[in-house]
Hints:
CATH class of one domain: Alpha Beta
Bound molecules: adenosine-5'-triphosphate, magnesium ion
Structural class: alpha/beta
Amino acid sequence: MGTEVKVEGLTKKFGSQVIWKDVSLTLPAGEISVMLGPSGTGKSVFLKTLIGLLKPDTGNVWIEGTDIANCSEKELYEVRKLFGVLFQDGAMFGSMDLYDNVAFPLREHTRKSESEIRQVVMDKMELVGLTGAENKLPGEISGGMRKRAGLARALVLDPEILLIDEPDSGLDPVRTAYINQLFIDLNAQIDATFLIVTHDINTARTVPDNIGLLYHKHLAMFGPREMLLTSTEPVVAQFLNAQRVGPIGMSEEKDADELAAETGIDMPPLPPIPVQLEPSDGRPRRAQRESGEWCRQNGVTPPEGSFEPTMALSGGAA
Ligand SMILES: Nc1ncnc2c1ncn2[C@@H]1O[C@H](COP(=O)(O)OP(=O)(O)OP(=O)(O)O)[C@@H](O)[C@H]1O
Ligand SMILES: [Mg+2]
């Protein structure tokens, strides 16, 4: 059914380096959330903190009554069973072929027979478009294929919470469109809580129910997709619309000279909001909201042309 993840006042440092501080947000049960942020702002560190691989300096991560930032190893082991994780680097065992890599969590955590395992593995391999590559070693395939194999492995235990770190890095645009549709279809099917870290603005604009932005050592904003896509907060508007004008520079923050050079240059108007991808079989997701619902409820007029079906760049259902 998907499990809520409640993050309260989370701060993470490595030595004296603060990665982010006082991050609070709730990943609503069964909804898809995307986390954005410039490179190096600690998105991967955040993901690892959510599954207790890294301990925060302060704060709590509540999952079904357990604070995994502060619980025992035994409790952590139990809570981890709820998760499926795709790490940024794929984290495949190099000496095992893809079949054994994907089967690994099933052999480790279930008592399924080898023939049952075969069924699940082949099913997930097909889902990510890797049928026929079962006997390849991770070193023998492309980065995009490794990503998809990692995704298959993240799915085998039917997770309640799916954490996915940059599924689209190294993927071509067509496969990215397929993966995006796959996330929507999967969410409709398994109803898990998703957190996807991505740099792909099209993914961020069309896939999630909620969007978050980590910037300059804090969570700049987290909320419903339409809230961020209509936000005129400079950092949010710059990032979600892939602009050069705004507070974010090449090395994270622009200095005073760079900002002064932009005086008088206005940010372009917000582009129309695309429709959110829908499940390909037409069955609604539990978290699905009507287009424009958030805007209506909050008295926000979306940019002209918003929610027209032709606005969606990555088609799938459109
Ligand atoms: N185990 C670690 N020990 C020390 N510092 C670390 C560790 N892991 C990450 N960092 C530091 O934390 C910061 C955030 O890293 P992180 O990998 O989370 O960035 P990111 O937002 O995922 O970037 P990208 O978009 O490039 O993947 C970086 O400065 C990194 O060097
Ligand atoms: Mg990362």
